Amino acid sequence: MKKYKLLSWIAVFISLFLLVLPRLVPICDGLTKTGSPMTCHYTYQAEFIITLLAVIVSAALLVLRANEARLLAGFIIILLGISSILLPQSWAIGICENGSCLKTTFFLTIGAALLAVTGAGIVWTAWGSSKDS
Amino acid sequence: MTVQKFLAIAFLIFLLGIGILYTGVNRVPFRNNGNHEHHQSTLSTAAVALNSSRDFLITMLTSNMGIISENKKGVD
Fold first, then answer.
1. pLDDT tens for each residue of chain A, 133 residues long
2. In chain A, whose CA is at the least distance from the CA of B14?
3. Half-sphere exposure of B28 toward its Cβ, with a 13 Å CA cutoff?
4. Which residues pair with A31 in a beta bridge?
5. Using CB atoms, which residue from B13, B20, B28 is nearest to A29?
6. Contact A28, B40 (CB under 8 A)
């Protein structure tokens, strides 16, 4: 049970970190020649919604009591982590080749991978507990 | 905390997040000039090319001068 609580708090902190990442490590702030924002802007707008959902689901882990609900929440966190990694790929939304965007994406990939691993840990813990009961 | 209470708070947080996204608080503000390209410099491509070629010429000239003066010393 202690392990589950620890993993839940880690997931909350990683999600919060990912949420404020574009403020800590900003993406490029330029516009295209037509005056519209670049691809990286849209990618990080989508990332914000995904990480906002990750914050809510991670916080839900601290409230949920039933093992099946915890299992599902952990699984959703894995999917959200994977989605966060995939969005900056060129075949999804993509980013521009600017140095600052690449830097933000580097930290995003590390954070999202850790979030997915934490989600896997939560699934593992809840899975074990559901087998015991 | 009950799940019902949590869901109500989570929904409010979600709405707050959408509001933040709408106002643009989640990101750094855009620069106002709309005619810049995919790099951080405020110079245009032509200006950057001009500056870099000028720097290259200066470096070449100064290094050649060093060689010339050393050669002169050798002759003397």
1. 689 999 999 999 999 999 999 999 999 888 888 888 899 999 999 999 999 999 999 999 999 999 999 999 999 999 999 999 999 999 999 998 878 899 999 999 999 999 999 999 999 999 987 766 6
2. A52
3. 17
4. A37
5. B28
6. yes
Residue contact B31–A31, C-beta within 8 A: yes
Q: Please tell me the pTM assigned to this model.
A: 0.76
Nearest residue to B28 via CA among A16, A70, A20: A20
Residues, chain A, total? 133
Between positions 4 and 43 of B, the ones with CB within 8 A of A are 6, 10, 13-14, 17-18, 20-21, 26-31, 33-40
Q: Are A97 and B30 an interchain contact pair (Cβ–Cβ within 8 Å)?
A: no
ipTM of the complex: 0.87
Q: How many pairs of residues across A and B have Cβ atoms under 8 Å apart?
A: 73
Compute chain A's Rg from CA coordinates. Answer: 16
Host H or E run for residue A27: none
The token pair that represents B32 in the structure block: 């106002």
> What is residue B12's three-state secondary structure?
helix
- Cβ atoms A52, B14 nearer than 8 A: yes
